[in-house]
Amino acid sequence: MDVTRRDFLKISGAATAGLMLGSVFDLMPIKAYATANPPEWDTVVASICPYCGCGCGVLVGSDSGGLITYVQGDPDHPINQGALCSKGAASVQLCTVDGQVNPERVQQPLRRSPGSSTWTPIDWNTAMTEIAGLIKAEREANLQKMGDAGVGEDESTYVNRLETIAALGTAKDTNEECYLFTKLMRALGIVYLEHCARV
Ligand code: SF4
Fold first, then answer.
1. Looking at the domain covering 39-105, what would its CATH class be?
2. Domain ranges in the chain?
């Protein structure tokens, strides 16, 4: 459908009217409920929502047993100023459901073997050792020679370039952690780097 300039102005006007109507909704019942049901926590720490690259600030409250009881937007955080989207607002369920530790929460590494459809829990030492071994084997098998990398004809000298591993960073990391992650990957010769905020 072709939209003329006149159509565009009509649509924009309708959208603006809708927004203005929204501003007269009565938020008092919601405010009253929030006032009558304040968060219950013994300790609270400031953290960052792990879900996306916006990096909203959250306040995470927990009871005396360490169980997380509440997550809310941090009003002092410069990015979200107390607001959270639905994902961030529901993030308490990462840890706690109905006052109990979420039984679905993954608390240790899981391995799915090639061709398998099931995940097997493994301990951290096993996971780190296996990952390190796989990276080492991949470098030994596929680290590029100068000729492969298009920097001359020399087929006997390696360059630190590995195209068979890709690395995906996370919005949960700080700038400094992302910097260290990038440094490590570059040291391994990995050239395919991405970040979930760009995917
Ligand atoms: S609260 Fe929503 S917008 Fe903010 S970081 Fe979390 S997922 Fe992203």
1. mainly beta
2. 39-105, 107-141, 143-199
CA distance 56 to 49: 6
Q: Is 85 in the pocket of ligand 1 (CB under 6 A)?
A: yes
84 ligand 1 Cβ < 6 A: yes
Question: What is the three-class DSSP state of 100?
Answer: strand
Whole-angstrom distance, CA of residue 119 vs CA of residue 112 = 5
Q: pTM for the whole thing?
A: 0.63
Which residue's CA is the nearest one to ligand 1's atom 4?
A: 56
- pLDDT per residue as tens, the chain (199 positions): 566 666 655 666 555 555 555 556 788 888 888 888 887 789 999 998 888 878 899 999 999 998 999 999 999 999 999 999 999 999 999 899 988 999 998 889 999 999 999 999 999 999 999 999 999 999 999 998 877 767 666 777 888 899 999 999 887 777 888 899 999 999 999 999 988 765 5
